[in-house]
Amino acid sequence: MSQQRIVRVSLEHPTSAVCVAGVETLVDIYGSVPEGTEMFEVYGTPGVDIYISPSMERGRERADTRRWRCNAGLEIIVVMNSPSNDVNDSHVQISYYSGHKPLPLAYTVLYLTCVDITLDCDLNCDGRQNGSFRQWVWGPMVWAILLVNCDRDDVNCDDRDNYLEDMSVMVLRTQGPAALFDDHRLVLHTSSYDAKWARVFHACGPEDSCEAYRHVLGRDKVSYEVPRSHGDEERFFVEGLSFPDAGFSGLVSFHVTLLDDSNEDFSESPIFTDTVVFRVAPWIMTPSTLPPLEVYVCQVRNNTRFVDAVAELAMKAGCKLTICPQAENRNDRWIQDEMELGYVQAPHKTFPVVFDSPRNGELQDFPYKRILGPDFGYVTREPQDSSVCGLDSFGNLEVSPPVVANGKSTPWGGSSLGQPAWRVQPPVELFVDWLAVGHVDEFLSFVPAPDGKGFRMLLASPSACFKLFQEKRKWGHGRALLFEGVVGNNQVSTISINQVLSNENLISFNKFVQSCVDWNREVLKRELGLTERDIVDIPQLFKSERRKAVAFFPDLVNMLVLGKHLGIPKPFGPIINGRCCLEEKVRSLLEPLGLHCTFIDDFTPYHMLHGEVHCGTNVRRQPFSFKWWHMVP
Amino acid sequence: MSQQRIVRVSLEHPTSAVCVAGVETLVDIYGSVPEGTEMFEVYGTPGVDIYISPSMERGRERADTRRWRCNAGLEIIVVMNSPSNDVNDSHVQISYYSGHKPLPLAYTVLYLTCVDITLDCDLNCDGRQNGSFRQWVWGPMVWAILLVNCDRDDVNCDDRDNYLEDMSVMVLRTQGPAALFDDHRLVLHTSSYDAKWARVFHACGPEDSCEAYRHVLGRDKVSYEVPRSHGDEERFFVEGLSFPDAGFSGLVSFHVTLLDDSNEDFSESPIFTDTVVFRVAPWIMTPSTLPPLEVYVCQVRNNTRFVDAVAELAMKAGCKLTICPQAENRNDRWIQDEMELGYVQAPHKTFPVVFDSPRNGELQDFPYKRILGPDFGYVTREPQDSSVCGLDSFGNLEVSPPVVANGKSTPWGGSSLGQPAWRVQPPVELFVDWLAVGHVDEFLSFVPAPDGKGFRMLLASPSACFKLFQEKRKWGHGRALLFEGVVGNNQVSTISINQVLSNENLISFNKFVQSCVDWNREVLKRELGLTERDIVDIPQLFKSERRKAVAFFPDLVNMLVLGKHLGIPKPFGPIINGRCCLEEKVRSLLEPLGLHCTFIDDFTPYHMLHGEVHCGTNVRRQPFSFKWWHMVP
Predict the structure, then answer these.
(1) Most C-beta atoms within 10 A of its C-beta, which of A43, A456, B248, B454?
(2) Predicted ipTM of the assembly
């Protein structure tokens, strides 16, 4: 603690001062030294440590019983380490001497009352604490974290809640003679800026009573006089109100100040301030490489078999399935676009938080009405500039697995991709204008891998598809047909490998698509620090609709990743020797990584509407195993 | 430039590509290598540099005429450094060989067109430029600075202006065959976030015509197709719209992208992007230790002699005087509280900017109506939460001289003191609740000094005043009277040194004031890295009004600092041997520093209304001699 106070003593009458345990008090005698003084002695009662220091330099000595030459450079520093039992029960006496004469010319007395005051963070669970919270430091020892209390613990309550278990505990400990607080006040305070981002409740009634917790700091409440009611320890509960973003760093400070109110003719004056700095936990996105916990899918008019396939895959992957019924989605099946599932984490608690996109289609009520609940938080952002575009759909908000790029560790997901409405993890801007829908999940996904960086980046590749088809033609399968097995759909005609490879328009358009994917490939390599070894090219063709690209056959990279189980859009590629050569190629690329490929028919209910398996599903995943506050950003 | 493109070549027909001078293009041959190929050779026309690189490692070699083993690890990298004269006038030929047989199996041709595209910052004056503006770097070589164009160059115009000389120049240079731009477009663009903070004008008409400058980027304008009208160089003028603050870092990026629009069946695709990052210059406060240029004072009902005294002092200090007439101030004399004068600076221009406080008294129109003008900017902030308090007056916004504290150099003024509405330089919070008015300038000022840190901090000191009065009493001057010479004011009675020293209420209240000043003294020492040698205690007494402090006699530290000339409130202290002992003491403290003390009678028009010389004046000062962008914050 670097705070230091000055107390000026006088010859005429004794002076009283309050000091805080462990905090130095500088005793200034030079305002009233008796005439003829050449030397002084300092004596303190037990428990009072006294040092003499030449003010400009560092060195200091115990005062002990020596006589000191009286010159204005010498500072007398007093420290007490234990709280007093009674007001003024300790003192310091300074005796002034003319040279080495035995009797003093005069002496002054400074009465001292020591109090111990600390404002600390505390954990609900084991009360462990860390000592200093006056600055926020990244690392494993940090507990001063606030959660945005955005879940709804009382399901009957329409408002967000202030459930204490979601809050962080702040403890004010005071020790010292009770009588001191008759004319000294303790005030908990914050700045009006910080008060916008957090709220503090005081546990001031009998526990478990509804009035037990009083809202004491927050918007329009920047200071609170702490009543001296029950003992030495006051407990406060603190919750965040907003996630850190461009306008808010996440840091919130609270202070306690001891005020001297002992003289009714003067205004109060501060004796000591202690501070706690909290950081509001960020909303963290989970990349597709994290283990899945729960899969979301919409039941719509024509997707029963699709929902069954997703259910089976979820069961294989050992995760929960939640189906949004048709009555709630009114046939809006794009649950990937409506929301993104992430989490918040503090030492005392972790819970998932759904981020509701500014998209607001027919599914718009689902996140708030069905997902928000006990220990499941909710956050949204209204569109900027009141215009929503396709880029604000969360098919366009994805996060990479942890990477170390540009000399900087971005361990909890690296980068959100695309141009999302709201950015938590540092973003990488990708070029998507060439796509008709324009979402990054149309050409990009990440799957777990046992080696390398722990994942592979999958990129849609027209070039790989042509190469595959050329090989198949060379081996005599030029007449094998795409789209042969599509069930119950008359809008699509079959097309042979030969026809594809002689369609100059399709070829030149896919060269264009390849150049667009390549542009993003180079951006991603540079920004995420990837090499070619981290990338798998998945054969894929696109076709042009009004100059923009849509998938020519179901888009293989637009997959549902549930751990090792992949739900991949069934491509309906050319059947060769009884097997789809596209499925076979994808298996040959991904199965060596220990992944299981399940091809799901999404042709009619999704592909025909320009979306695929990924667009039509959403996944809540396990949080990262490391804590975000261990890493310096 | 780290941007790199991939171009895939094919055996079937030649490929064309556009490359940007100095930017590497990776030529991918592996999509179409003829069967049986074991080796390849690469040849380029003059001006095309070709390198072969094993992709995973760093090393690369000139391709020269060697034959290379064909394996997918080898990358072919092509660079051109000069723009082409015609479309496709250069090319690269790759020949594929079976082993060392002399004749190739096949070959592919890649036609190249090189363009040179750079987006740069430029100075109006000498056209000097720095090469890379893709990141903003602190230091002496930086020119990418925007000014908030907040002055009014056209005095007949009610709106703010967009005078080109206040703007920064951005230049887009393109060199390459004109025919290329028939089917390629150049687009200048920015993000919708950045577009809020700056505007770009394009010099696109005949010079000096009113339509010469088109507003092309800004709010609701995030992209602009640059017409290929007149030559290789397009000039843009850029101005900032907001000063950096809590919600805006000050950085604004603009990009130019070359788009390939050559195929009407495809959407456009990007070939190259160049970026310029500007930083908006901050508003910089000038501490009282900087040389004065212009003094402001209000002419009110009863202050003619005061205005004359200020005028004389300004003349001595060699600076301009501006008097705000009574018709405009309606007797509001607190011009220190209404505004703060600072400046903005960029390499091409520096001009003063008045920051209009949220206070809004009768003087409220003066800054906008009288100070805003050609090369004199204006900025204001509306009060937060629609409540204005005394702390929002700018008597409470002061800045220290440059200091190096806490291991951090804060060279352009260190810290604004008090709790200002808006913070530019890092603030130090001081305790002012004990003051009736509550402004830092009631107990604190800074004066220039020839030694030490180049300044002294003056603190109001009741302790020093009592010590002085006790000495005077000891020497037999106990009956000397304060307030004896006050002219034309019957509300104040004289009081002797003896009376002051026996007034227990006054003594104990001033001990309280001393403890409050001492609290701030310790905060300032800690935060600004000051020692006792940097501080001068100026004798001063305060009295209690409703428990809060007001100056007992004119507040000596509340002074006007004009270089070495100080305009100090005349204290009307006890006259001893024909001289005011307070004036004599202040002279003895400040004259050894080379300062000239002029005591100005402000008793009736200012002191009686709880303000003094500093509150009633304002000063425009010289900018710092160093540039803000030289210093890493």
Answers:
(1) A456
(2) 0.71
- Output the six-digit token pair for A158: 């329409």
Distance CA A614, CA A441 (A): 8
Exposed, middle or buried, B67 (CB in 10 Å: 0-12/13-18/19+)?
Answer: middle
Q: Looking at residues B125-138, what average pLDDT do you find?
A: 53
**Interface residue B514 vs chain A (CB under 8 A):** yes
What is the Cα–Cα distance from B170 to B278, expressed in whole angstroms?
10
Alpha carbon B136 to its chain centroid, in Å, reads 14
Q: How far is B514 from chain A (nearest CA, A)?
A: 9
Picking from B5, B385, B544, the nearest residue to A265 by CB comes out as B544
Give the C-alpha distances (Å, rounded to integers) separating A323 from A282, A570, B367, B434, B552.
Answer: 28, 21, 63, 64, 77
What are the start-end ranges of the E strands in B432-533?
444-448, 455-461, 481-482, 495-496
CB nearest B270 (choices: A247, A269, A431): A431
Portion 286-305 of A in contact with B at CB < 8 A? none
Whether chain A has a CB inside 8 Å of the CB on B521: the answer is yes
How far is Cα B66 from Cα A152, in angstroms, rounded to an integer?
A: 71
Token look-up 């005071």 returns A174
First-to-final CA distance of chain A: 27
State the catalytic residues of B.
Answer: 337, 439, 441, 615
Cα A626 to Cα A563, A564, A622, B471, distances in angstroms: 18, 21, 11, 69
Strands A565-569 and A596-600: parallel
Which residues, 6 or more positions from A514, have their beta carbon under 8 angstroms from its beta carbon?
A461, A462, A463, B8
Answer yes or no: are the C-beta atoms of A129 and A141 closer than 8 Å.
no
Catalytic position from the list A337, A356, A534, A555: A337
Taking a C-beta distance cutoff of 8 angstroms, is the pair B483, B494 a contact? yes
Residue B555: is its pLDDT beyond 90? yes
> Per the CB < 8 Å rule, is A384 touching B192?
yes
Catalytic, A581? Answer no
Question: Is the C-alpha dihedral spanning A381, A383, A385, A391 positive or negative?
Answer: positive
Residue type, A213: Y
B105 is written with which tokens?
A: 């199996």
pLDDT band at A211 (very low <50, low <70, confident <90, very high): low
Minimum Cα–Cα distance from A219: chain B residue: B385
CA B513-B519-B522 angle, 5° bins: 140
The predicted-structure confidence for B200-220, as pLDDT tens digits, reads as follows 999 876 665 556 788 999 888
Helix, coil or strand: residue B249: coil
Mean pLDDT of B554-578: 97
Better-scored residue on pLDDT, A358 or A564: A564
Contacts of A264 in chain B (CB under 8 A): 547
pLDDT value at residue B269: 82
- How far is it, in rounded angstroms, from Cα A285 to Cα A279? 18
B385 contacts A511? CB cut-off 8 A: no
The answer to whether residue A384 neighbours chain B at the CB level (below 8 Å) is yes
* pTM reported for the whole predicted model: 0.80
Range from A110-124, A454-468, B593-607 carrying the lowest mean pLDDT:
A110-124
Rounded to an integer, what distance in angstroms lies between the CA atom of residue B272 and that of residue B4?
9
In the Cβ-directed half-sphere of A309, how many Cα atoms lie within 13 Å? 20
pLDDT in tens, A569-623: 999 999 999 999 999 999 999 999 999 999 999 999 999 999 999 999 999 999 9
Residue B552 DSSP SS3: coil
- The band of A385, judged by pLDDT with boundaries at 50, 70 and 90, is very low
Three-class SS state of B558: coil
- Could you tell me the CA-to-CA distances from B228 to B85, B174, B183, B236 in Å, in that order? 17, 10, 12, 14
The pLDDT confidence band at residue A50, using thresholds 50, 70 and 90, is: very high
